[in-house]
From TrEMBL:
<feature type="domain" description="Protein kinase">
    <location>
        <begin position="26"/>
        <end position="287"/>
    </location>
</feature>
<dbReference type="GO" id="GO:0004674">
    <property type="term" value="F:protein serine/threonine kinase activity"/>
</dbReference>
<dbReference type="GO" id="GO:0005524">
    <property type="term" value="F:ATP binding"/>
</dbReference>
<feature type="transmembrane region" description="Helical">
    <location>
        <begin position="313"/>
        <end position="334"/>
    </location>
</feature>
<dbReference type="InterPro" id="IPR000719">
    <property type="entry name" value="Prot_kinase_dom"/>
</dbReference>
<feature type="region of interest" description="Disordered">
    <location>
        <begin position="270"/>
        <end position="303"/>
    </location>
</feature>
<protein>
    <submittedName>
        <fullName>Serine/threonine-protein kinase</fullName>
    </submittedName>
</protein>
<feature type="binding site">
    <location>
        <position position="53"/>
    </location>
    <ligand>
        <name>ATP</name>
    </ligand>
</feature>
<keyword id="KW-0067">ATP-binding</keyword>
<keyword id="KW-1133">Transmembrane helix</keyword>
<keyword id="KW-0472">Membrane</keyword>
<keyword id="KW-0547">Nucleotide-binding</keyword>
<dbReference type="InterPro" id="IPR017441">
    <property type="entry name" value="Protein_kinase_ATP_BS"/>
</dbReference>
<dbReference type="Pfam" id="PF00069">
    <property type="entry name" value="Pkinase"/>
</dbReference>
<keyword id="KW-0812">Transmembrane</keyword>
<dbReference type="GO" id="GO:0005737">
    <property type="term" value="C:cytoplasm"/>
</dbReference>
<keyword id="KW-0808">Transferase</keyword>
Amino acid sequence: MTTEKKQNRSPRPGETITGKWNGHRYKVLRTIGRGATGTVYLAERRGKKLALKISDQGYSVTAEVNVLQHFSRMGGSKVGPDLIDVDDWLVGAGGQPVPFYVMEYISGEPFLGFLQSRESFWLGVLVVQLLSDLDKLHNAGWVFGDLKPDNLKVMVSPPRVRLLDVGGTTKIGRAIKEFTEFYDRGFWSAGTRKAEPSYDVFAVGMIMLHALYGRRFRRQPGDDLNTLKARVQRLNSPYEPIIIHALSGKYVRAMDMQYALTTLMSTYAQEEKKRQSPKSQPQSPPLTQTRAGRTRVKAKATKKKRIHPFKRVVQEVVWIGVLLVAFYVCMLLLGGS
């Protein structure tokens, strides 16, 4: 594979890319993402859909391939996409070789899209999974860097969050090489852009804030960490202490935030389980005789109490929640052993 910078021509939908060295042929279907280091296309080979990234920066392709190779050696659950092929594409007769690599195409729902159709309890479930993967990445000596919802996808059956673009992945101790301002702690004057686990943890806090707000908000002149804390507090969310600690750098490691979030969800689910136990249920109202001799339930005219959305969802899925939390606690314990 060439490592020199060459002039890149974008392939057209329906065009076939043939590797110079391995000879594998890939039919380009459409563009699925663009970044600072190249463009990712949905491609097909022998009826199987794949993700193919083309870049005119050979050194960037080499670095990303190294990261994907590290991912494959981590063991356990998959952290990022599997690396499938690395080669050069000859653009036209006698053209210059353009480096590309092929990886697993992760099908599923966008991170925010998955949450829009579900209650906020699922935000905690997905973030616990994400923090587990980040902890593995950090232990291997890397920081993801450009962590944002666009670089996350949720596999639906069963729900499982996966990391996508590794273009911003940086060795611990170096300067972050690629980031998106809204999720960058340096942009909010909340820390440096040194590649360390707490940099990714800050981004996780911003992802949670984005998910709860439903949108990204503009940074105004003078906005900083205190501005973010105030926004979190206005949400009146059970996740408030977790997010504020993440933004403030209180969690040095991803597993610290994961443990705090798991504990919060487990405690809340147990409390709701007690509230919903049969002993705490009110007795059925007495039956009274109607004028026509039939019976009906006498209903008391009471003011309807507003239930917080988070409480309502926990009441509805409390048993599922307890099982899910127990499952991820087991994963945490096994991962730490």
